[in-house]
Fold 3-isopropylmalate dehydrogenase.
Amino acid sequence: MTTIAVVEGDGIGREVVPAAVTVLSTINPDWEWVPVEVGYARWQRTGSSLTSSDLAVMKEVDAVLFGAITTPPGGEYPSVILQIRKALDLYANIRPVRAPGVDLVTVRENTEGLYSGIEWEEEDRACSVRVVSKKGTRRIAARAATLARERNGHLTIGHKANVLRSDQLFLSLCTAVADEYQIPHTTRLIDALCLDVLLHPEAYDVIVTTNLFGDILSDVTGYLAGGLGMLPSANLGDRHALFEPVHGSAPDIAGTGRANPIAAIESGAMMLNHLGYPEQADLIEAAIQAVMLAGIKTPDIGGSADTRTVTRAICRALQSP
């Protein structure tokens, strides 16, 4: 039996993840869903946002379906998703964007860079260490090159090697790996890339970059699909996998019914592909497109439907002959 850990998290994660589970259960009613509570709300209530037992559950299941976590500034509350990524060694963050005339994927290194967690404060400053290792770079470059080869496509390496020594290493290793895989590739400075991908999205296929740059770039590309409510993602390692919408917990709309469930449902489709059910993933993709063409959309993409209405419509589309 396929077993999935369900981590709703905070804010609208508690609305969009149940929506994704409802859709996935329409296709796979026999799957086992294991709830795992983590996040800011739990921390406020118990003083603990994530435990070793929670991580043990996530390591035992076939995959993790993750919602969104509120991470307030201030430093007293460590990021839950960063802890999970490191504990499960989910080093590759895969963020696809599809829209008319657009089909590109950002492959983001997921465990190093400025999110390495090496930080400290001094009397007059705060310091964060940006870590780019040879091992980390080679494996994310290999993941991106493999994806580009599967797509019969092209690899773009996003960097800031004109300024950062760590990016000089990243660029040289990514270029070497692309050569080894015989993948056509180009290099772009990350700031110019953020603009050009919006102006000429058809020119891009697979983009690989470092952690923070990938975080920013993949949000930028969300504009091409209509916003963050449309963007799924996969966090992949060699042994574990976690799937989550790109958007945050959006506390300003939590509980209003306005949350767009499509990113979470699309993340479920990515999970199906990863687990070896591509036909089911295609069915979900087709159902989403049918519902959107029928005009059943949440307010963020120009509609008036609520979360549950969109979810029910997708389930009906799946059940239609």
